[in-house]
Amino acid sequence: MRLKADAPSKEVDTKISELLSNEQYFRICNECGERNPCGWMHSQLICQSWAERNHGVIY
Ligand SMILES: [Zn+2]
Fold this sequence. Notes:
Blueprint: H1 6-20, E1 26-28, E2 35-37, H2 48-55
Antiparallel strand pairs: 1-2
The structure holds zinc ion.
Zinc ion binds at residues 29, 31-32, 34, 46-47, 49-50.
C-alpha cells in the first residue's frame, strides 16, 4: 500500500491559507502591506516592525 504523500501537505496548505485569510488571526499592515499575526501587530493598522522602524517604538 502506498501512501499519498501529497494529500496531507495539500490539506495543510488549505488550512494555512484559511488561517492566512482569517482576519481573526492575521491582519494586513496598512504601512508595509505585509500580513502579520494579530499578536505581531502594533495596532489594528500597523505591524510592530513598522512601528519600530518608523515610529521609534522599541520592542
Ligand atoms: Zn508593517
